[in-house]
Amino acid sequence: MIKVKTYDRVHGAKHTSRHPDPVKRILCLTETTILERDPQTYSVCTLRPLIDVFALIRDKDNLQKFCIEYKNGIVRSYTTNDRDSLLATLLDAVRSSGNQDVHIRIGNTPRGKRYVPLSSTVDEETETNLLRLVINNFQNPTKRYEVLERFNANIPHSGLNYSVTQDSLLLRTKKNLYSVPTLAQKEVDNPTAQLTNLELEAIFHGLTRLLASKTGYAALQIYQGFAR
């Protein structure tokens, strides 16, 4: 029998189409894996490397529900009373394992807007086109959300992969780039804007990816109030 040393565990339930009712599970974390145990026998039911996690989904409607998206396309759903605490711990554990692209969303990754599998990254030309779309269309409220969703679905949470090439693009389009945080702040502060949580999240994730570039950060930080 193989013994697995765990440093954190949470009781919850797993939701799967294989069973009509939720199945009780103990979710456990090790330094490199997340595993499910049967609460009665304590035997390991599944074990997956943390490096294979693509995103964590914090359900916007059910306060106890969350999902784990894996790079192979599999999505596993759970409920637990300690959801937010578990998500925070899980996020730290995944990043500590070396997976810096993991992030928390309120909905599944829009696979229809992603050009490559979750385990792959887009090429330089595609990344450049996505960046141009954001810079040129952020001021258009009818296109902004769709463009940001497509950008966020394809660009890693840790930022642009081809930073040298994209830095030159950011430098050439600084004027348009300056408008991104300005418009974002206006939208958030405007009581009549009525932005949905999905739209706010798209803006946040888009800015996170842009800020990962040195040139993008340098361009955005001149915006008054940005540092706050």
TrEMBL record:
InterPro entries given in the database record:
GRV2/DNAJC13, GRV2/DNAJC13_N
Gene Ontology cellular component terms for the protein in this record: endosome membrane
> Which Pfam families does the UniProt record give?
RME-8_N
Gene Ontology terms describing biological process: endosome organization; receptor-mediated endocytosis; regulation of early endosome to late endosome transport
Q: Where is the DnaJ homologue subfamily C GRV2/DNAJC13 N-terminal domain?
A: 13-226
What name does the UniProt record give this protein?
DnaJ homolog subfamily C member 13
Q: Please give the organism.
A: Eumeta variegata (Bagworm moth)
